[in-house]
Structure to design on (1006 residues):
């Protein structure tokens, strides 16, 4: 590849990156200046930025409480995903009667949109006594199909000889999973962490339905609540958007090294 | 297969055992009140609760506030689960859907029994929540459409008299149009634009219960509106925006007239420095036509404490409770004595809204767009997209109205 | 299905992956129990939150029911209504197909980016990060941001287009029957493109470099190498992208609700937003259930079609050699 000059690639990628980043810049700029609906032409650089809107949001809703709730739910979801998906993903690397049907079932489940499941899911959750609870909010996302397949693929890539050796030494299956396989599948774990975190962090409709207590609201619900207070597109709304998406981005940036290699581990093999 | 079943059962059992925290207590003495998008209304709500607790000291009051887009989802999920909020604040025609399917309590027995309360409520307003001869709601706060005038723009265009007919409105609008300026704009959600049709003699359904709007007069009117929209006399946002967009556009100061309901005023006033009682006029539409968009409290059929809930509803919608509502949200209520007191309060504290609120109690016999259709929302969904397509020039008025007629009639027949 | 007879030497031959080495039926049935035990929690969750609700919908679609009254048998009433009388259903179905058909546009773009960041250029991880960054953003926030970028009077897009002299007046993108759907699709592609890119990058990196070297020695040019080696080998990844693309017409729900609410008319209504409105806004859960069933079958068929095209590698995300 080194035969080609790099600058055209850099040029193309820079332009595309800039296009991808514009919305981020715009929301940040607006959250700092508040100029919008009645300002034309829009100024491209922030004029006299201030953090007033962030302060506004901070006092308008119990931000820390919502943040705390969001974090708890996301932690439950992430832990559950890593454990349950690893188990299911491992099982799917084995041959067993009904494997084809199970994979088929998983794939079909992906085709059922969440919105149509609200009422029965609510009734079942209510039967389990999990309404208005963190676990109840987390449970529907506790195992996700895409992530199971990520684990499955990662397990399949592990050298078989290593496992076989452990088996001959009489190491039980569960120990093989937790002592040998999981450490070798760090990238897949990182992928699970990020994806399940994103999905849980942004989940809106389900918490809306099962949470009654104002103290249990998560950040996306806070956003909706906030929208209804300001009822338009002021700087405060954008400040709130920034405050909601920053934690997600931080988690992503922290885990991204593992994550990017997680989905692209082939590079090291060759 | 057996193993599968055993494994599944084992998994489910483990899950249930680890997660089950013990079931909730049985019948606790509690009523739940769900309000519609007024999370800031807390002081007044606390007053309601205090007054309620004087009558029922052993009861707790739970409050939930939801945005209009989410309230129906939450409410209906709760209804299916058998735990509906006892009292719900609903806007527009939403209650009709629930009432027609037996989801709400008929309030007639309560209203007949508690004459003291009923006498306070304006009967014309109360009848807004009448379906098949029975009342299902009591007014929490009221609003209906009116015409806002941008007096600055009228002055510039040399218009000295307020319009007195549909033709004059459109003629004035045309005079004010030019450059960035448009002459007229209306809100379109629910049936808020219907006064434009009512004042031109178009009826929605006839006495036979079938669609009656596909007439040559209506076609001519739609054509005229589409034509004026094309020319920019009627601002296009009239047919596309919901609430923020049209009111924001009026706040920008380049729209001559805005047909909207009363709460729009304080919203666009908060967005624009130029708005004051000199620069913005308010009048009833010529002929007095208006579409109500009031909020009411309804009582769930599944309520476990209907008597107590009813007491709460009375507190919230009359006397001191209604006064708290009016001052807390800057609206009038269904209680006429309270309204007088509220007008005094507004004259002192918020004089700009007084002329707007005065229109809200006038011409209560000329309300339109408040037909008690069981499938109100479905009819809106069938009718409006067709009308919208015609108004935006996507479809001919003839085609759109006959399509709409066919669809509306189908809904009126179907179960 | 049941254990014993299947436990033949023939099966042993088909075993791969991490399967045990020690044969014997006791060991085998213990293995089986363990496999099902590992699958059980996930299966239980999907049973509760996907399968039972699907069955609920399927049953409901043959009934008259609402939250306020008991169920009555309806036969095919709702299906008849949907297929013969409901224009909006057909329009939303059509919109959904267009929405899904736009996925390849995003996938092709993502593939181009993936190919570029798969080279050994400096800063490739920065580019990868930037391209993925839009995916973690909450969809509601994405909707709010784009709604404003598309604004007729003050939106950045119109401003740029006017400045470049392409148009004279702002286009009301989200209020126009012609532009609304493409605009929503653009926002959706922006959000999901990083996800596509990462999946494709995964596939690209699992291709052994030796294959390219051999082809280069045989005198194949870059285009030939792409068509003969790259494309066939990333088929599983492409399949996963298509599945994500199909599912994206559910996940775009929030986006559409915030940006257009399905309008103007039904111009941006997808099946999922239409189903939701019918159920929760019109309280016609029974009718919504019928559309849900049709929607499910349709998407399942599309997924299997995509699977066929990808060579039957259902869900195989190859992350390594």
């Amino acid at each position: 590849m080194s035969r080609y000059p790099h600058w055209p690639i850099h040029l193309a990628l820079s332009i595309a990156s800039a296009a991808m980043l514009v919305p981020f810049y715009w929301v940040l700029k607006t959250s700092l200046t508040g100029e919008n609906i009645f300002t034309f032409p829009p100024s491209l650089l922030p004029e006299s930025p201030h953090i007033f809107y962030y302060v506004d949001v901070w006092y308008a809703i119990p931000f820390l409480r919502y943040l705390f709730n969001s974090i708890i739910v996301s932690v439950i979801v992430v832990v559950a995903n890593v454990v349950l998906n690893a188990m299911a993903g491992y099982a799917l690397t084995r041959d067993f009667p009904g494997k084809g049907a199970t994979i088929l079932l998983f794939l079909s489940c992906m085709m059922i949109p969440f919105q149509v499941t609200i009422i029965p899911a609510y009734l079942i959750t209510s039967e389990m006594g999990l309404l208005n609870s963190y676990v109840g909010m987390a449970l529907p996302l506790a195992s996700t199909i895409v992530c199971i397949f990520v684990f499955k693929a990662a397990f399949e890539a592990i050298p078989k000889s290593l496992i076989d050796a452990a088996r001959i030494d009489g190491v039980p299956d569960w120990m093989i999973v937790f002592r040998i396989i999981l450490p070798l599948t760090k990238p897949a774990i990182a992928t699970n962490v990020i994806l399940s975190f994103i999905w849980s962090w942004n989940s809106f409709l389900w918490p809306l339905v099962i949470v009654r207590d104002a103290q249990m609201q998560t950040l996306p619900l806070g956003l909706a609540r906030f929208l209804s207070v300001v009822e338009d597109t002021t700087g405060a709304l954008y400040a709130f958007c920034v405050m909601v998406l920053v934690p997600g981005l931080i988690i992503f940036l922290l885990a991204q090294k593992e994550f990017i290699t997680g989905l692209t581990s082939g590079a090291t093999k060759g | 297969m057996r193993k599968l079943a055993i494994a599944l059962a084992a998994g489910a059992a483990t899950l249930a055992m680890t997660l089950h925290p013990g079931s909730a207590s049985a019948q606790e003495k509690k009523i739940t009140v769900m309000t519609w998008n007024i999370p800031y209304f807390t002081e007044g709500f606390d007053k309601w609760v205090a007054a309620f607790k004087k009558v029922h000291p052993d009861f707790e009051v739970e409050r939930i506030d939801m945005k209009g887009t989410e309230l129906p989802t939450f409410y209906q999920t709760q209804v299916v689960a058998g735990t509906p909020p006892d009292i719900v604040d609903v806007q527009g025609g939403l209650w009709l859907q629930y009432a027609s399917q037996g989801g709400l309590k008929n309030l007639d027995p309560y209203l007949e029994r508690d004459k003291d309360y009923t006498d306070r409520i304006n009967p014309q307003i109360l009848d807004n929540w009448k379906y098949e001869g029975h009342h299902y709601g009591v007014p929490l706060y009221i609003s209906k459409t009116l015409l806002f005038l941008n007096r600055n723009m009228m002055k510039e265009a040399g218009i000295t008299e307020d319009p007195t007919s549909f033709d004059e409105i459109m003629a004035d609008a045309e005079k004010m149009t030019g450059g960035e300026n448009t002459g007229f704009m209306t809100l379109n959600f629910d049936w808020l634009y219907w006064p434009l049709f009512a004042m031109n003699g178009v009826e929605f359904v006839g006495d036979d219960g079938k669609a009656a709007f596909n007439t040559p007069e209506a076609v001519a009117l739609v054509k005229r509106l589409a034509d004026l929209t094309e020319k920019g006399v009627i601002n296009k946002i009239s047919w596309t925006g919901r609430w923020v967009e049209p009111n924001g556009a009026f706040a920008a100061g380049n729209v001559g007239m805005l047909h909207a309901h009363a709460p729009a005023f304080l919203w666009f006033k908060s967005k624009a420095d130029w708005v004051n009682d000199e620069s913005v006029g308010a009048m009833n539409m010529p002929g007095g036509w208006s579409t109500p968009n009031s909020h009411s409290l309804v009582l769930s059929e599944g309520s476990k404490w209907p008597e107590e809930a009813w007491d709460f509803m009375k507190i919230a919608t009359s006397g001191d409770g209604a006064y708290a509502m009016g001052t807390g949200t800057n609206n009038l209520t269904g209680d006429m004595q309270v309204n007088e007191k509220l007008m005094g309060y507004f004259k002192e504290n918020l004089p700009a809204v007084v002329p707007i609120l005065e229109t809200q109690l006038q011409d209560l016999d000329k309300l339109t767009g408040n037909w008690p259709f069981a499938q109100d929302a479905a009819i809106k969904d069938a009718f409006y997209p067709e009308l919208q397509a015609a108004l935006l020039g996507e479809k001919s008025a003839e085609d759109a109205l006959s399509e709409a007629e066919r669809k509306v009639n189908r809904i009126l027949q179907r179960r | 299905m049941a254990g014993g007879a299947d436990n033949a030497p023939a099966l042993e031959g088909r075993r791969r992956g991490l399967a045990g080495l020690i044969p014997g039926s006791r060991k085998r049935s213990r293995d089986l129990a363990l496999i099902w035990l590992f699958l059980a929690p996930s299966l239980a969750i999907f049973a509760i939150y996907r399968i039972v609700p699907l069955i609920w919908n399927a049953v409901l679609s043959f009934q008259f029911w609402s939250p306020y009254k008991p169920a009555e048998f309806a036969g095919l009433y709702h299906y008849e209504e949907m297929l013969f009388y409901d224009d909006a259903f057909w329009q939303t179905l059509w919109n959904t197909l267009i929405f899904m058909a736009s996925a390849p546009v995003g996938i092709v773009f993502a593939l181009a980016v993936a190919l570029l960041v798969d080279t050994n250029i400096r800063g490739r991880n920065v580019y990868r990060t930037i391209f993925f960054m839009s995916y973690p953003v909450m969809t509601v926030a994405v909707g709010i941001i784009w709604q404003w970028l598309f604004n007729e009077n003050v939106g950045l897009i119109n401003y740029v287009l006017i400045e470049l002299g392409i148009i004279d007046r702002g286009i009301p993108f989200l209020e126009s029957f012609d532009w609304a759907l493409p605009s929503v699709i653009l926002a959706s592609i922006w959000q999901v493109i990083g996800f596509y890119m990462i999946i494709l990058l995964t596939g690209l990196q699992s291709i052994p470099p030796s294959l390219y070297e051999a082809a280069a020695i045989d005198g194949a040019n870059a285009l030939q190498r792409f068509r003969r080696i790259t494309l066939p080998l990333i088929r599983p990844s492409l399949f996963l992208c298509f599945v994500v693309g199909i599912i994206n017409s559910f996940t775009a729900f929030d986006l559409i609700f915030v940006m257009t609410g399905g309008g103007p008319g039904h111009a941006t209504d997808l099946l999922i937003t239409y189903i939701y409105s019918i159920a929760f806004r019109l309280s016609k859960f029974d009718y919504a259930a019928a559309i849900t069933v049709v929607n499910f079958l349709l998407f399942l068929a599309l997924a299997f079609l995509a699977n066929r095209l990808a060579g039957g590698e259902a869900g195989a995300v190859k992350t390594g050699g």
About this structure: The beta strands of chain C are 63-66, 69-73. Residues 25-60 of chain C form the longest helix (36 residues).
